[in-house]
Amino acid sequence: MKLFVPPTVAPPARPLGILASLRAVRQNVLTILPELSFDQPIVTGRTGPARWHMVQGPEGLRRIFLDNAENYPKSEVMIRMLRPAVGSSLFTSEGADWRWQRRAIAPVFTARNVDALAPVMTQTAERASRRIGSVEGPVEMVAQMLSATFDVICEVALSGREHFDADAYGAAITQYFLTVGRASLLDFLEVPYWIPRPGELFARGCIRTMHNMVSRAIEARRADSSRSGDRDLLDHMIAASDAETGRRMNARDLLHNMQFFIVAGHETTALALSWSLFLLANAPEVQEAARAQAKGILGERAATAADLDAMPLVEQILEEAMRLYPPVGLLARNVLAADRLYDRDIEPGDTVFLNLYALHRHRQLWEEPQSFDPARFSADRSAGRDRYSYLPFGAGPRICVGANFAMMQARIILATLLARYRFTPSGAAPLPVMHMTIRPEPGVRLRADPL
């Protein structure tokens, strides 16, 4: 079977200076990744006064994520882009502030709690399937998947959309990514971060929109003394306490952590589903094999958590989609103290980029790395693979706390759709464009023909 080779981004022909780097990063972060990064474990260079190292070797990533993680906090550029929306939440905090939040929130995502939320995911998959069936002509899948995962987040986080306008919230997220979420010339010139960037000024309205919706939901919950029934994520967060200190989340902690969970939790899962459907539409043999599994188990009903183990190909497809298009393709870290990665001296003040996009397409780590081949995640082909060669959810102490939650909802939604529709391409193939996440631009347009 000939493997489908989906679109990627051509590396720059030569090293980029400050202004060229700025233009490239503002248009698409992936366009700055050098060709060498797909063959070498580390690439070092300078952009103006800044010395940087791009790491895409498993051994180096293991040291940064795990063995010497305290030496590599999130970079000030990343924090600057995220802090206006999510404050000092679990994702942006460091040190003791991060540790107590992690201890408080981690129990929320135990396997038992995630399993208890699965029926909501099944109901959402049913609604998503009906919405797709109601569209005449080609369907834009990114919008559909964003709506589906927003449904899940609202139900499991806040027991409904009562305080949310999904269209307004989604537009605010997109506006945020295109303003605060883009690098500024001031970042490249290492201007102090307490000096506002232009994007932060343009983003004030969208930040206010998101925060107002989340705050209203939190205030309503705190005022509802009669609430009964199943607990949602907000209930768990309100009740959560640090096992060591007893500290609980105040109103600001709740706002920022709930805001981050809503934004990250539905955006990244929706992208994994959108890319998966695009890849399957262009690989009909894989799609038919996955459909046979799903249809054989589900028949006419929507998928449940109990069905997932009997449909391994669905999970492999999602894993391969996140290999080719990881939700976040490039992370940045500051360096606190001198270290050594491979044959390079890493100095305090350097910037280290964790190049997950190149890691997942590295020619020394993957066979036919540019091709769509879900079978590479089968049990026999995965055996012996370095844990740090595939990192869609990060690794080490700061691995994504909601990874199991994200994969369960993605598997339930994808299996349900495959059992009911045949997907074929309609229009030009999208290109991967990264600002904060890797989105398919200008979208994923597919025909969805009922079976």
Approximately how much helix is present in the residues?
40-55%
Q: CATH first level of the domain at 80-326 and 394-450: which class?
A: Mainly Alpha
Could you name the CATH topology of the domain at 80-326 and 394-450? Answer: Cytochrome p450
So how many helices?
Answer: 17
- Mean pLDDT equals 88
User: Pairing-aware structural class of the strands and helices?
Assistant: alpha+beta
Number of strands: 11
Unreliable parts: none
Q: Major beta sheet, specifics?
A: 4 strands, mixed
What series of H and E elements makes up the topology?
A: HEEHHHHEHHHHHHHHHEEEEHHHEEEE
CATH superfamily of the domain at 80-326 and 394-450: Cytochrome P450
If strands are numbered along the chain, what order do they take across the biggest sheet?
Answer: 1-2-7-4
CATH architecture of the domain at 80-326 and 394-450: Orthogonal Bundle
Beta content comes to 5-15%
